[in-house]
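Researcher: I'm comparing several assemblies side by side, and this is the next one on my list. It has 953 residues spread over three chains. Same procedure as the others: predict the full complex and return the structure.
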Amino acid sequence: MFVISVIAFSIQDNLGDPLRELVGQSVSEAERQNLRNQMGLNDPFAIQYWRFLNKAIYGDLGTSYFFKRPALDVILDKLPATLELVFGSTLIIILFSVPIGVFAAIYPRNWFFRLVMGLSIVGISIPVFLTAILSIYIFSVELGWLPSFGRGETVNFYGWTVGFLTRDGLLHLILPCVALSSIMLPLFIRLIRGEMMEVLESDYIRFAWAKGLSLRRIWFLHALKNTLLPVITVGGLQIGTLIAFTILTETVFQWPGMGFLFLEAVNRVDTPLIVAYLIVVGLIFVIANTLVDLIYGLVNPTVRLARTTQDGE
Amino acid sequence: MGLLEVQNLEVTFPTRRGDLVALRDVSFSVEAGERLGIVGESGAGKSVAAFAILNLVSRPGYISSGKILFEGTDLSKLNPQEMRHIRGNRISMIFQDPMMTMNPVLTVGVQMTEALHAHREISAEKARSLAIQTLARVHIPSPEKRFDQFPHELSGGMRQRVVIATSLLTEPSLIIADEPTTALDVTIQAEIMDLLLELCELSQVGLILITHDLGVISQVTQHAIVMYAGRVVESGPIREMVQNAQHPYTRGLISALPQQTTPGKRLNQIPGVMPSLTNIPNGCAFHPRCELVMDNCQTRFPEFKIKGKKRVACHAVDADMLNGHSNPGQDEV
Amino acid sequence: MFSKAWKRFQESYLYYSFCRDRIAIISFVILCIFVLASFSASLLAPYDPYDPLQIDIMDSEIPPLWVGDGDSRFILGTDAQGRDLLSTILYGSRISLTIGVFAVLLQAFLGVSIGLISGYFGGRLDNFLMRLADIQLSFSTLMVAIIFLAVFQALFGTELYEQMAILMLVLVIGIAEWPHYARTVRASVLAEKKKEYVDAVRVIGLGPLRIMFKHILPNTLSPIMVISTVQIANAIVSEAALSFLGLGMPVTKPSLGSLINSGFEFIFSGSWWITIIPGIVLVVLVLVMNLLGDFLRDVMNPKLYKH
């Protein structure tokens, strides 16, 4: 987090002259210098950074140039939209990749699963934005089944604007979520299948067979638990990519979320907004990674602090 | 009718270059409470034979012919459901490396009690207490603590004891132990072997011990078969085999033991190496390395010469030669 | 000397499996066609899309030949400004490929060096470098690239940016992905370090640099080769994504990504080819490289390089 905040701040400091944005061109040089002094813009970097941190802790990340509102508020406003996307996609990924990956490993010669594996290479090769565009083209323009932009109807849910509680909102959610998951899904299917196939060859699975355990138990307890370990790790790494991809997806679908906001902010050189986005994303990122680490530690017993070290005979 | 009778077992592995026969015409039997040893070098097919009994030969291998009669039923003809009732229940198996055998993400307790739950109606508390009792039987200190631990928290020797305990839980009639001590420290090996012996004698459980270590075989088992390149070359009571081995390979193995050599002299070796499955010589597979090789050794695999309980597959051995004829300079191994 | 190396290659396992794998052969052929076609774009393309004199706005939005009112002058149709799509795609592919290859060269150079140093010297340096790699990896290339380019563009204005675009893209993608190489190489180095020949060579008294480059490096080449194909594919995709967002190649000197971007709005008005055709070209290019990468990975060593 520290790294992120320093980077974010130095960007703010160097990017665009906030004074010019606030005051316009017609102020004289002397006055401008005066204002700069007042605003503390001429102080050394460290002091400015400290001030920045102080304000940030209280939630004040500066005021957006464009929206003329506190940057943090603007971002938080759009947060639910992006979160919907992210949760929707994650749900799709988990729901589909685990069963498909597992069964593709158990029945590798089955025609259906071979087809799936073949398609997955194609899936990995199509960039997210292209899937988004293609799906819009096919489902929206040609077939007219699903809406192609925006969020549809939203409803107020405990103070957050939420889309998935309305049917229209759900319809709008489908294409973007599918598009967002389109790269991760094949990746995870392949990963799970690969891991599972390796696990199935291991000695302890053979021993489980020798114990006469039921198929279901062997596959879904013994094998699956071991398979999921590296998958969780990879999942953690992919969170960053997922968030980056939301920027792409939101752009294509005109989805009013943080990513879209960020891009616009970049185009407008709305520095406080850029900074605020980076910090919020950084925070989400850190939280998510910590969660993943925790989950991994819970599932993998060798990682937990050993209560006893190895005992002798 | 014995406990287990394997008749003319043949196991084949289909490969892109044709079928590889891993086991050919393998036969042996175990009576109730009896202990049989299967000796041979790595790659001779000992483990394959063991897995074949439980129909666990790694794919794409399969049993191409022969019978495996367990208490009268031919195991090779059972469907997966029926086979499942035998595995871990009537016949248990112990693998070589306990670290790889136990699932690292599940506790010892889970891995033990699941064997019980899979084959009997039993409550969780009863299963737990039974498991802990059995852990005590295999001399594991503080078994209640171990029950909730994970495999990596135990030492190698303890893990193998846990595996042995697991195999005893269902009170099987037969235990197959595939090189149970090879992965362990030498000091622990003896303890584990003693433990196995003690438990089998106590509960009258049949044991098939697979190993490359002749010394262990002679101390633990009552009968043994010697395998070479997928076939049985000699079998019989262990005493007689050790004192009076007939097949050149067996004699080579025995004389290669360090105890056979006078101190200071070079160890006896059998020249050459055992052939791999893909290029087994014609006739008797041992003939390139055999000191008694004759003409027909290269063309025909010898039939078994039988005398009482002894069987030898060697052209150079006569049926009447199966009496008396000790190996030079040795009495006990 | 080349003939000897060629002969050794012919006898290698790699060549053997290659000739037996139909998919690998087809992919390789397609890739070669691509590379050749795009690099001889100036010879092959019917028009020069950068020459404003050759573009007539009246020619804009003409569909490809096989659709309705196609024009035989423009086989694949034209875009919104009247540029021939075939030519633009050819030139665009060239840009995409160039950026991809150079970015990967940079990544490889950085990553391999860091990986070698980190793995060989170990200790605190290793810890620090790997931590750095972890942080960067978890951020994902795209994020890093977007931030970097956005900042750059804002700082220096769009005009300067357009001129520097290729360089910037190569730099950014190159710097963003070094952890991949570093990690893989480091793993190899650690494995090799344990082998006896390293001790033997050290005992003779060779300095670390020499050991690293002459002895350890050749053994790490196979994993490097395996990831390289996929990395080039990824670099091309990243560049396309960035251009699509407007942060990459400008519209005046388009790569496949910016082509797709410029055509996007026209999907709704019916001129689908402006976006879809470059899109398909991009997918095929990337797909082919991924397939080759897969093949390489299966051949070299299925277990070790599972990224």
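Model: For your comparison table: The interface with chain A takes residues 135, 137-143, 146-147, 150-151, 153-155, 233, 237, 240-241, 244-247, 260, 264, 267-268, 272, 275-276, 279, 282-283, 286-287, 290-291, 294, 306 of chain C (CB under 8 Å).
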